[in-house]
Amino acid sequence: MSDTAIELTGLTKTYGTRRGLTDLTLQVRAGEVFGYLGPNGAGKSTTIRMLLDLIRPTSGTARVLGLDPRADAVELHRRIGYLAGDFVVDGRQKTGECLTFLGNLRGGVPPARILELAQRLDLDLSARIKSLSKGNRQKVGLIQAFMHHPELLILDEPTSGLDPLVQQTFLDMVGEARRAGQTVFMSSHIMSEVEAAADRVAIIREGRLVALDTVADLRARSFLQVRVTFDAPVPEEDFTDLPGVTGLAIEDRTLTCRVDGPPDPLIKAAARHTVTGLHADTPDLEELFHTYYSGAPSTA
């Protein structure tokens, strides 16, 4: 088996004058959980649809499990579990009938496997799909993606509509898939679930890749939010123009600022006064990723 599950090179998709995806180049390693993050409309679903040949790129190439999504579509789809962001099936069927039908299309899935996943996700197999809530329909989509133990799981916003307990069950299933050697490519705009599940993360904004790294390394490159308290008011000019210090504000005896890079210049400036308190926080993932969302698009 190749060490690379997905390889994208210069992948671009335009819709007339409208941008879908611009010059996307990245690799997903076999056996990893890969988080694909971005706000709605960033290009996540466009990327996924090109991986499956549901739409075709304007330029660039994609290789999935070593195959061409267009020329080798039939073979490739047998080896993939896919959950669309807008999962839709015939509402007249019962959930169990639907999942059995979809399993038979794949050559047969043991009924015990479907039952096991339904019990874990608390899905009633006797209910008709048209009667299900959005969250329960999403459970049907998850089961059909996982039930045949695919080499590659491609999941577009997989926890949409799920309650927190079921979200945790889903994350457990992702962890089990990774331990079994499966690859998981998971798009999301929910930062906490990606932090809990992913080995590496790509962040996409306005159709362009703006970051690609492990969550830990993204954190290491992030900034500090600092609050320093003193025993008396301090002059602001003692702290202006310090390297890496931005957003400086001093109110009474409290200084707050953001520090990008080493905090040593700020600490030395503060040490010229009597410090009564010091608090420094790295941003949570939500705030960290929003620094990429709100910044100017990169050409990475």
Automatic annotation (TrEMBL):
ABC transporter domain mapped to chain residues: 6-231
ATP-binding keyword on record: yes
Designated name of the protein: ABC transporter ATP-binding protein
Organism: Actinomadura rugatobispora
Location(s), subcellular: Cell membrane
Pfam families per the UniProt record, alphabetical: ABC_tran
SMART domains, A to Z: AAA
Family, similarity comment: Belongs to the ABC transporter superfamily.
Coiled coil segments of this chain: none
Matching Gene3D superfamilies: P-loop containing nucleotide triphosphate hydrolases (3.40.50.300)
